[in-house]
Design a protein that fits this description.
This protein is 33% helix and 20% strand. It is built from five helices and seven strands; from the N terminus they run αβααββαβββαβ. A seven-stranded antiparallel beta sheet has the order 3-2-4-5-6-1-7, covered by helices on one side. Helix 3 runs antiparallel to helix 4 and helix 3 crosses helix 5.
Amino acid sequence: MIETLLRKPYWVIDILPGQVPEDSAGQYFAIEKYYLRQPGITDIHNRFTSVLLKLNCYSDFLVCLSGQEQQILNPEPEKLTAWINTEQKDLCIVLVREDVLITLNHDDTCMTVYNPSEALINRIRSLVMAHGLFLWQPGRENGGEKMPHSAAP
């Protein structure tokens, strides 16, 4: 199921409003490296955790940890938080009823949402806005949407 969903259209939940062009004049790799260290990565993971916990209020989560075959249905909030923030696990989260996959790698500054419906994207958009994050889809000319939050990176 996960392999099939990985081939579907996807959206990105990110600290940036869109994909940085290869020929960008900025210093993307230096900035990314900065955010992947402390305290930046903890802040990003806390934002991602909040989005996921709130999304789990609306959808069942079937969570797969990288390197493990076991799948956990709706893990306790403390457990999901620990996997993301303390243990820094790579996660695949399947929203079974929605036929959607969310991936989170511990060494990325983004999460990816595969095969979301328009209704789910609207819900996710509301959640990421509340946490100063951006939601964008690759290939869209304008990248993402600026989220009105004073704590945006």
